[in-house]
Amino acid sequence: MKLAKKNVLITGASSGLGRALAMEAAAAGHKLVLVARSLDKLQQLAAELAERFNTDVSVYRADLNASAEWRAVLEEMLQQEQRIDVLINNAGVGYFRYFTETEPGQLDTTMRVNALAGMEAAAAVLPSMLKQQSGHIMMIGSMAGKVATPKAAVYAASKHAVIGFSNGLRQELKPYGICVTTVNLGPMDTNFFDTADPSGRYREASSRYMLAPEQVARKVVASIGKPKREINLPAWMGSGSKLFQLLPGFMEKLLGSQLSKK
Question: Which segments constitute the Ketoreductase domain (predicted)?
C-alpha cells in the first residue's frame, strides 16, 4: 500500500489519541473519515486539518454505544465514501472499579464500545477491502488485554477480546493482502482517565511512564500498510507482558503492589 491518499477511518477522533492520529494521518497526506460523539469538536478539527494540511476530511457523528445507530452511520458512510482503505478503531472507555462495584450499564458500555463496535466497523469495511485485495485494520488494544489488574477486570476483558479478535482476523485475511495490527498501550496522557479514574490517583502513580498521544500516533501512522502484528508501547511493558504470560503466578506475587495502583 502506498501511504498517500488513502481513505483512513478513525473512531473516537475528537480528542486524545484520536485527534493526534488525525493530525498525523493528515500530515502524511491521507484523506480522513472521522467519527466521534461530538459533532462540534469534529467540525472544528476538520477545519483545522483542512487549513493546516489542505486535506479532505469527512466527519460523522455516532455513539458507538448504540449498536443500531453505529451500524446506520457505517452504512451511510460507505455510501458516501465508497471505500475505506485503513480502519483505526480507536474509540474506547473504561471504569476502574472492582467488579463487584461495577454497574451493569458500565459493563455493557465497556464491552460494546471497546470490542463490539470495532468488530462492527471491521465487518462494514471488509467487503471493499476484499474486493480491492488490500487494506489495513488497526485495533487500539491495551497492555491490560495482556496483563489484567485489580479494578480493571471488565476493561481487561474488553481489550483481551480486541486482541483475540485481531489475532484470528489477521490469519483469515492474510491471503487477501489485508493487514491487521493491534496497538497495545500502557497508560497514556488523555482524557480517558476523566471517566476511568476521576480521583486522579492512578494518573499520578503512572505519571513517570505516561505515553504522549503524539508519540503513539507517529508510530501508528508510520505503520500503515506494513504487516505489523503488534505495536507495543512502551516497549518495556510489551516485554514484561511476555514474561507475565510465561510465569503468571510468579509475576503476580512479584508485582502485586505495582498491579494494584488503580
Answer: 6-191
- 10: pLDDT strictly greater than 50: yes
10 near 34, Cβ under 8 Å?
yes
Residue type, 153: A
| In-domain check, residue 85 | yes
Whether 4 shows a pLDDT value over 60: the answer reads no
* Cell numbers for 244: 507475565
Cβ-contact 27, 49 below 8 angstroms: no
Nearest to 225 by CA among 129, 161, 142: 129
Under the banding of pLDDT at 50, 70 and 90, the label for residue 257 is low
- CATH number for the domain that contains residue 221: 3.40.50.720
Residues with Cβ < 8 Å from 191, sequence gap 6 or more?
15, 16
Q: What is the pLDDT of residue 238?
A: 84
The catalytically annotated residue of 60, 95, 98, 155 is 155
How many Å apart are CA 14 and CA 172, to the nearest integer? 32
Is residue 93 a part of any domain in this protein? yes
Residue 155 is among the residues annotated as catalytic for this protein: yes
pTM of structure: 0.91
Report yes or no: 213 and 204 within 8 Å, Cβ to Cβ: no
